[in-house]
Amino acid sequence: MQIFRPLLFLLCLSASLNAQKPYVADLSKMTAEETAFVNETLDGMSYEEQIGQLIMLRAHSDLGADHVAKVKREIKEYHVGGLCFFQGTPEDQLKLTNEYQRLSKVPLMVSMDAEWGLGMRLPDQTISYPKQIALGAIRDNRQLYDLGAEIARQMHRLGVNVSFSPVLDVNNNPNNPVIDTRSFGEDRYNVTVKGYQYMMGLQENGILASAKHFPGHGDTGVDSHYDLPVINHDRARLDSLELYPFQALIRYGIGSIMAAHLQIPALDDRKNRPSSLSRPIVYDLLRNEMGFTGLVFTDGLEMKGVTKHYGNGEVEAEAIAAGSDILLLPESTPDAVAAIKRYVDEGRIAQEDIREKAGRVLLSKYRLGIGRTATYPSLTNLRGQLNTPEAYDLKQRLFENAMTIVRDTEGLLPLSEPVAGKLITIHVGESSPNTFSRRLDDYAKITHLNAAYDLGSGERDQLLSKLKADDKVIVALYSDGSRFREKVPIKAGVLSLLRQIDERAELVVTVFGNPYSLSALDASGTVLMAYSRDKVAQDAAAKALFGANRVNGRLPITASPYSRFNAGVETAAAFRMGFDTPEAVGLDGNLLTAKIDALAREAMRRKATPGMVALVARNGRVVFEKAYGHHTYNRRRKAKTTDVYDLASVTKVAATTISLMKLVDEGKVNLDVPISNYLPDTRGTAVEFLTLRPMLAHRSGLRSWIPFYKNTLDANGRPKRQWYSTKKTGDYVIPVTDKMYMKSEYLDSMWLQLYTNELPNKGQYRYSDLGLYLTAKIIDQVSGLTVDEYAARNFYRPMGLETLTFKPLEKFPKSRTPPTEKDTYFRMATVQGNVHDMGAAMLGGVSGHAGLFGSARDLATIFQMLLQEGNYGGVQYLRPETVRLFTQRYAGETRRALGFDMKQLDEDKNLNMAPQASDRAFGHLGFTGICVWSDPVEDLTVIVLANRTYPSMNNNLFGKLDIRLRVHSAAYQSLLPSRTFGK
Prior knowledge:
31 strands, glycosidase, EC 3.2.1.52, 32 helices, alpha/beta, hydrolase, disordered C terminus, Glyco_hydro_3_C_sf
């Protein structure tokens, strides 16, 4: 497969960035090469330089020249060993990192808090992944490894070596002001296994992970940024809960641990003694008893939980004396260095301890690949290479897998449109339109209403007045956006609203925020927990509600007796059409867009068509849908994806063939008996003994078409008044256009012409419309319904397909249907909203070979049902064996199936679709500029809708340029290299 050069470059770059040596955590053992490096480097350092290796400074890229100058001064004067970056921009951060590295004699160890990715410190410029509370809901723990690996890739690209993650705090205090959503939850086993996978993703890809906040910050009601929290549990409790994840990850190779600022009397009963400054906790417990052999970082030493009770520099010296290796964010580097020296002089710290700690830091740097020489990543395309489509795909996958149906006592999920009522969404705390409402609109017609957190009785009553008993109501509760807690205000007015909705309609509550908010929702029977107001979480929630994705998340905490840990209702995907990014299904979105955009521009520049719509779907998800150009060359109305196009011969498969398949399923039609069994009028005629099977494969001998309209024109080529009227009157009742009515008597003449026509192509392949005229008539005779009503009743309406219809002007304004021609040979008018095909028009707009109109999305849904072997939304519309029968080649044919077109296998004939398509691909072309192709091998559907026949059907440049085939090829050319993409 050819790969577009920029994509190839990115793939190679990604491979090189990920080709990092796994980080080896145990610093108590060294190879001979490592020993030589460490000793040689230490011997070349002064005592002050060794102290400097133990200091990691705060660094920003948005605080201006004075801050930068201070950092540079301390790198040079105090020989600091590392930096911890906070806010700024990726470009400025990398630029400064490279400058700082050049100033340092020994390469700097660069760190970031990246619990939920670089977006934790660089929001809106880099990707913020779900917080750990949402990750705690995911059942497939391998996805946590994928997260760690991706964050590692991004960190390498940004010149960062250490991620202060994962958080191993077991959060069992709903009022925890600082951990809360940063924890994987309340269960020690869940926290441990997810922390392990996250750690391995980081360290196997060359980034040092750091477990925090030792010995466990989960059960506090005080934020250590502002005061010293006290943990009053005994040692047995600490061993069984708080310490459990740390002990497990020490056993499995965590590279570093961050010591928290907590007072824990059971471990050190000295008053106001933070755990980070406690030798009984850091050295005796962590190092000796638990056997930790990696690096120990302090938590930030600027935090009031530690500075409140100690003088300048004393905090840092006490931390070193307690057993820490690296002092994170000292308030004053000069004071810290002075105090450490004083402690050494006083014998409170051994100078050999300084050398030993500096040696551990150097060994860690060596294993990170920065022992001798720093890396200097390029600034070129930095943001693009951080925020790759694959990285966004991972975010989407994580949120989709985190979605948790806490309970569904009434069995309302997945949602479907109510038979009689409406679907209504009430957004509390965020106004629509937003990501959630827009995605919901893709699945159904929904009325969106908004409400405030402080909902008053007047606003509540006004909302309730818009609801009826047969409505389904989704109430979306959004968080307040708080950084760590993402509180969801559920006040009395909102609770009253929920209670009264539940009394009069079906209610589904969706929570975009902290799961502890569920404590107020015990009365709600159907609740979806989405964990965040992030746009991707909103998108995932909409998909979950309508069954586009499987839902199997589990609640990671207990919020109430009715919202307990591990609660979660599992649902299978309802096999509905979903919506996603190209990368989520294995397509390069940038390449796909670039190629189709270029083809559309070419088509319109060459005046091959005034406008078009293209759609690509894979694995049941629409990943590309775009309209181009205008309805006409006067450019007055832009083409839209919701436009209703004349689908021409696609009618043959998307209406007539699927209807016949249904009748075959029901045993009402046999493909191998003469059609006269169903159409008594054909007895004694040329077509009496035709059978459906060869007729559908265009092997029955019928001629291609009959120009029925020509016999109704006068010598000047004008419609005869004998047959047509401008008004519906008397026997003139067949609507050819909205201002042209044909005399019903002529229908008999048309059918007689068809029945008595000779079979000039007997035994040969000849594409023919006439067989589909007959097929539609058989559907009418057998079912008692015309093909349009039969298809609507059995497929379009139950599948929720609004636009697939015959005679669209009965449902839609004319402006929504692009015109197909300025007819100067029959109708003498612009054909718009009426079928372009002349024969179908003379049948009143309903025929088996033409007459269907629709949007790309609805057409894609029909073909997704076929790809799913007749199943859609959990309903079996057709039997799988019937779908397989109709979508395989007719015996001896190189191209045609039963009704469906397939890839041409005869190399001496022109291809009808992309050469990359599999031999099993099926679909159809349409005269007006239409194509739909579905490939079961790739689970790929590509649709092009155009009105290339406007203003004249004689303009076939659209076909000569092979626009449809080339759009189809673009989808295959955009397939990413081998990777598994599931539904």
